[in-house]
Write a structure and sequence with these properties.
Length: 546
Amino acid sequence: MKRLGLFVFVSLLMVGMLSSCKGPAGAPGAAGTAGDKGDTGPTGPVINSMSVFPILVEKGGNATVKVNAKSYTNLALSYSWSATPGWTITVGQGTDTVTVQAPLLFNVVGGVTVTVTDTNSMSATGFASIGTADGDWNIATLIETGAGDALNPQVATDPNGNAIAVWYQVDVTRNSIWANRYVPGTGWGTAQLIETDNTGDALYPQVGIDPNGNAIAVWYQFDGTRNSIWANRYVPGTGWGTAQLIETDNAGDASGPQVAIDPNGNAIAVWEQSDGTRYNIWANRYVPGTGWGTAQLIETGAGAALNPQVAIDPNGNAIAVWYQSDGTRYNIWANRYVPGTGWGSAQLIETDNAESAYSPQVAIDPNGNAIAVWYQSDNTRYNIWANRYVPGTGWGTAQLIETDNSGDASHPQVGIDPNGNAIAVWEQYDGTRFNIWANRYVPGTGWGTAQLIETDNAGDADAPQVGIDPNGNAIAVWYKWDGTRYNIWANRYVPGTGWGTAQLIETDNTGDAYYPQVAIDPNGNAIAVWRQSDGARSNIWANRFE
């Protein structure tokens, strides 16, 4: 059931003849009025009514608009229609009834204007307003039926709404990497094993997808001696390829891979890897038609470097961030990749030395502007910080983006739209429980005021994630304790309206649900995935906002 998020109406602009139109000799007529000729009624056409069905349509759906007009002098009438930008007249131009197609956007109002003209060039104009329904969450769906625990789902979606979810699942002997694909109008397929190396456990996959639906999954896998980084690629119409080792440094374990893909299908993977003494940050690049390159060290610091994240813009420029020890505390570092040039020099992007900074995340817009967020101790509590990168200028000054000193704030996530507007979400303690907070960045204005986006005080809310579409609409998801079990919740941000009311998006009360992830397509459709216990094992579930 779609929610009515807008007041939608039909209105008439009673317009009569235009001032530039000439009526019959002796007709007085004036702009915006219908000319009279004695007591015989208006000399120009009159719009008596306009009807719209349905008034509220699905995004991309159709409405029928009919105008009821009359000439009191029995002249023939012609009809000219125009639509609000984004709306399209598909059938009926030149008649009294048209079909109008809505844009692929939730919760917007538009409409059509009709000009009715008689053979004396006298006119009347009317306007019919039409709206699109707001989206809503569907019913949660189980997307795998394996025998063992399934954990750590991740999801990515392409501009057409096709999505790929990946996770790891135990088969009694070892953990393996699995995937499933969602196609709009068809739904989820059958879960598929995407690696067959049975030497040891394969864990913690990540996935990225390009506009053509090509996807790359990365994970780490034990070979009997050490953990290594592997990848596989999905091509629509062909399926998954053969899993491939993408680094061959056998000095020590490699783990925590992340991946980002640009519109041309070029991908960059980053990970942490031990050299036998400390962990370092490594990267490798995939180019369609060529494959993976040679893994490369992208920082040379003296201390352990951990938890890399990566984002990539449409031109293939990428930014990686991580935290790294200087021997006293952990700091936030970044490096930038430019096609044709390669990786630059790693750079410290915060200089607050009060205490350690952890777990950075990064998002990048089509112009290459990036925002990194992290949490950092001030020796009393953990706070949320951010910094912004601008091509040609570099990193700015790190900024505190929340000032609630009740308790620790941690584990931020960030998303960004094509205009550079960003939303950060995090979990924060209020002295009694953890809650979910958000803040929004607007270029030229900066960060706003942090805002609580859920108010259910039954128990802790944890591990938020956020996705944002090109129109700046965002969806945040998290898991929350209700006093009996953990459930999956979501909230939606709409520019000009703000955050809505937090909503439960699954109602299976058999067992706890944890660690949701979310991806959102350009039309505002979103897919959330999570793990949930059925009382015997953990399964992978999904729900779609549309």
